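Subject: Predicted fold for Polyketide cyclase / dehydrase and lipid transport, 178 residues

User T.R. writes:
Posting the sequence so we have a shared reference for the thread.
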Amino acid sequence: MRFIKRIFITLLVLILVLVGVSYLLPGKAELSRSITINAPASAIFPYVNSMQETEKWSPWLTRDPETQLSYSGPEAGVGNTLNWASEHPQVGTGSQEIVESVPDQTVKTALDFGPMGSASASFDLTPEGEQTQVTWGFESDLGMNPMSRWMGLMMDKWVGGDYERGLTNLKALVEGQG
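User M.O. replies:
I've generated the structure tokens; pasting them so everyone works from the same file.
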């Protein structure tokens, strides 16, 4: 009986330590990836300023070709919204809406993953001579949920590779147009 009690107390202490440490972890998950594309910002901007155009280079749609997509709002710019639904756990269900758009410079979006939370993403286009550096960023407030904070530590590992693949796809698409 003492042995079981010790195991129970040890597990309880371990859980309390993990919860306590979680509040020392960052309250936001942030990541970004960049790529240089051999094209002016004006050639890249249409592909990041329209959810319909992101279909052409998205790193996630190849994971589940059966993903159901629907769009609302204008064809591009602020208010352009994508809703997606997939049974694939790495695609899931959610929506993304463009909330800010500055031609040939930046696009900001609001992401809603339903019960999984919300986040924001951005595309920043920085001219570099004849080329443009494209930076794709992501930020999510993790709140006070201890599990979310621990998961936030893994966000770069989980999503970073997808961002790199997406930017590589975007580069190939834009440079192939020229």
